Structures are given as C-alpha cells and as structure tokens.
## 1
Amino acid sequence: MDIPHQFLDSWNEYMYLGAIAFVVLGFLILGYHEFRIIIIKDLKEKYDYVNLNEIKFFWFAIMAFIMAGFMFFNTFATDMIHKSGMTWFYVRLFITTSFAVIFYFISFSSIRIYYPRFVEKRLNKIRNKPRVSPEGNIMRKLSEQEEDAHLEQSMIEEELFHSIDYDVWIDEKTGHKKIEKYFAYQHSEECPECGYYTFKIEREELEKVPTADNTGLFIKHFKCSYCEHREAREQVLANLASNI
C-alpha cells in the first residue's frame, strides 16, 4: 500500500519539530534546575533543594532527550517507505518505539545506580562550604567534640538515637551561631556488595538504652535497592553521664 507523499512530508515535519522541541525542553529543564541552585543563597537551603530535586530534574531531562531521539529517528528511511509501502512505516515505528523503551530502562537503571554518587559529591561540597555570617565574616564549622556544647539536649539525643546529624557553624568574631540539621537516611552509600551508591538506611533500632552507668546500643539496618544486600551496623551509645 502506497503512502501519500503529503502524509509522509507532514509526518517528517512534525517529527523534526517535535524532536527540536524536546531537545530544547531537556536543556530548559537542566537550565532551570541549575538556575534555581544559583539563586538560592543560603547553603542549607541549596543543599536541601539539590537533595530533593537533583535526580528528579535530571531524569525529566533524560526523558525529554529520549523523546527527541524517538521523533528524530522516525524521519529516517522515508524514501524506502515511499517505495515499499505502509508496512515499512509501521516497521520503523515499531523499531523506534522499541529502542525508546530500551533506552528508557537503561537510563532509569543508570540514573538509579550511578548518578547518586555525583549527587553525594555535590551535596558534600555544599555542606562543607564555609558559611558567611550576617556581618560578612567567614564562619568555622565545629568538630563533633565541640558542637555538643552548642546543642540542646533534645538535639544531642536525636544524634544519639536517630540517623540525624547537626552541623554547628560559629562566627568567632561576633559569636553568631548557625545550626543545620541533616537526615542520614535520605542519603545513599556505596554498597559493600555491588559497589553502587544504592545502600540506604531502611530502619533503625534502639537495642539497648544507655543509662548513667552503662553504654547503649543503636543498630542501623541498611538495604541496597539494587542487589538487595542487607547489613546491620551497630553503634555504641555513650552513657548518659558522659553526654551531659
């Protein structure tokens, strides 16, 4: 069955325009994400934004590029379709759809397995970048030993009994203090079994409550979302007397 030239010409035109539109959309998504990061001045807010949105926006952009590729390759071999008929039009459509689906799953797996490593590096860079006080002075990040003196007892208990960490920044010229709260369970680690950054805290368990005389025991249960490897890590909690 012959296909009218007008149909194929219109099809190719729409496919070209669609491919260009999706390429532009992909770059706009990435550009919008990076612009949002630039305009967020507070580093903790920047950290939270990247943590919540980096992978999501990157995935949206990849989806746009896959659609662009699908449309672009649906303009190939038009002369052969004119000569051979409608069958090859559907063959081309089937092949391009199949490749789009394959690239979808490859991209999904790659982003889930490999991209968290780059996100964690970016987050660590933001988290450890020196803060600036309202007076314009560079602040110093306190060590674990120093920061307890600046935390409330409830914050210290959160660090002990939950996967929560506090960073304390001090302006040593004015005494201005900034306390930032981070959630460890939101982050991926390198899986000891498969080596991918898909190892996260699944649940926590307070095995033994610390007392004034005895240490406690806190267990973090990890699970890899890729290879399903599980691991429990014990954390000894200092006795309450030493935490006061």
## 2
Amino acid sequence: MTKILIADDHGVVREGLKRIIAKAPDLVVAGEAETGEETLEKALTLGCDMVLLDITMPGRNGFDVMRELRSRKPELRILMLSMHPEEQYAVRALRAGASGYLNKDSAPQELMAAIQKVALGGRYISSSLAETIILNVGTNVEESPHESLSDREYQVLCMIGSGKAVKQIADELMLGAKTISTYRQRILEKMKMSGNAELIRYAILNRLVD
C-alpha cells in the first residue's frame, strides 16, 4: 500500500485528488497539507511514501519544499502538480529531483497513470513533454538567461511576465513587497535587463507565461 500526502492550498483540488486516488486499491491518502511548512512537517512525520506537490503554495514554494525533502528523505517520491504549462516548470522540476510533472488540467486517467508509475518507483512525463525534451537535445538550453535564476527568482520572473505588479506577487506568495522587489532587482541584474518591459517581452518570447 502506497501512502500519499496531498500538498495543495486549494481544498477543491485536494478533494478531487482524493476521489481519484480512492479508486485505486493499492493507494491511500495519508494526509493533506495547505502550506509549504505543513507539507514538510507531515511528509517527515506521517510515514508517507509519496507526495503530490503543488508548485505555488503559501510560504515556501514547491521547489523549496522538494529540495529539503530530497536532502532529508531522499527515498520519498514526489510528483509535481501545477496549473502552469509544462514549458514553464517541468524540466526545472525534473532537474530538481521530482519523479514526475503533471498539469492539473490533465485527465483523471492520466493523473492515475502518473501516480501509479511514480508509486512503483518510475518517472513520469507526458508525451508532449517527452517530445519537447527530444527536440531540445543538442541545443544550448542551459545557456538561456533565465536558467541562471534561482527557483524563487524564476517564479517571480514568470509572474512579472504575466503582468502582475510587485504587491500582487507579494500577496500571492505571502512575502513582503520589499522581498519581491529584491528578487526583481536580482533578476534584472542576472539577465542584464533594465526593467519590467524587457522582462515581460522576454517571458512572452520564451513561452514562460500562459
């Protein structure tokens, strides 16, 4: 029996995932978490085998949580779930140690297939993501300016790219506006850009926004 922790700040999403998982006799939901801190606590204390982990959560984001779990409980299997398109976060998530990545809009059958594969110790990527990875083989993907950003900086870049203001980003990530402004300044410096207009244009051209 595989014990699963569902980590998502939306109750409706958690309920939907529980209903899908309940249909499998070899899977059981061991617990739920709404924030990054709660996810860490429960993942380390509930004896779960697998975490369905959202990227965007209050407090510590999914990448922060995953990196700590990888260091403290490396045998734990993590399937990243996100509302963001694969082009934005999938490859970054897999590089960081996720066992798979799936968009929340995926059909229940695909979600179950992904959970089952990861539960058995495998890795899951969609057919469209596999095709993207194959097409990028031999290209200089690593040299893209945004690849130098930390996970949090990358998240802020994507939010700026979608037209969100500093205060709105701060509210959504439950961080101070000053902190977001600091991230923004680091992004501009690392990417050698002068302002939001350039960041937005870059994000659109590189398909980092919906």
## 3
Amino acid sequence: MMYGIPMFGNYGRQQQINTQQYGFDARLTDGIKNGSLNRDEATRLWQYDNQTHQMEGEFMKDGYLSESEKNILGARNRYNERMMALYGQGDFHPLPLTQPQNAVEARMQNQFNRTFNGIHDGSLTRNEGIRSLQHQGNNATEYGRVSYNFMGQKFMSPFANMYMNNRLNGTGAEIFGLRHNFARDMGSPLPPNMSWGNPFAGFAWNPFRNF
C-alpha cells in the first residue's frame, strides 16, 4: 500500500496536465475555426504550448512528475490560455517565439501549419483538429524526453532521431488522411477564392479545395 500512494499521486498530476492540454487544443481548434485566431496568433500559442510539452518530457525523463514540476507546467498552461483570450479580442500578429533548430523541429512546425490549414478550410472537422493537435503535443513531449540541451541547442542520439522521425511520419500520414477523408466542416470561414463545391461529392474530387 505504501508504494501505491506516490504512483497514484504521480498519475493524478499527469492527468491534471493532460486535461489542461486537451482543453487548450480544443479551444485553439475552435479559435482557428471561428476566425478569432489568425495564423500568427495560433502559431505563437502553439509554439509556447509545444515548448511546455517539451518541458514536460524533460521532467518525465525519470518517469515521475513532481508537484513542483506540475505547478510549473500548470502555470505555463494558464498563461497560454490568457494569451489566447487576449488574441481572441483583436487581430494581433505576434512574432514567432523561435525558429526550428533542426529537421525534427522543422517537421513539427510544418505539421502544425498543415493542421492549421485543415482546421481553417474545414477539411479537418473539430474532432479531427483536436486529435491532430493532441498527437502533435505527444510528439513534442517525447521530443523533450529523448533529447538533451547543450548551450541552448537541442541534440539527439541517432536512435532518438530515428524514433522521432518515425513518430512524425505517422502524424504526417494521419494529417493527410484526415484532410482527405469524407468528413468536412462547412462551418469554417473560407477565403473568397475558395468554394465548398458540391457537398455530396467526395472531398478528393472537389476542384476548388486547396490541398
């Protein structure tokens, strides 16, 4: 019984963070869909969330999330929620927090851009958008867990690099599959040069869709 208490506490702390992360992904998806978050705003929010996920992975290298570590992650999540609320009140264009340091980070950025496009143009439904962002967050957590910092730069072993690229291959294929299935969200705002076309036609056959 003595050994079950810290395990339960560790699990509970992780669940609290996971719940916050899911709520953020849902609200980010909604903000992109309803047009209250532009690309620059959404990218800035995603980058901060991505860094928080990486920090979570660093904390979890020993398989344990302490109370103080949970509080750090929770504070960052609440800060990002406040920034989302601020961005939703106007049309801001914040600069990116950082630029990709390596190919893995560049792929994560690219996958977010593809997800943003899918959420915004309706080729990703709300649930599909949340699902994609959740998987990308999990990738960022794993990136933090398997990489190490040296003089402000992220480094990985060859095995860790292969592991991360395999994960990103799966996420990239998922984004493509979700954007090209028959589920569409016609409630998303569209630029003037785009059209939903025939609502009964398959998504892949719509000549007006921007892939």
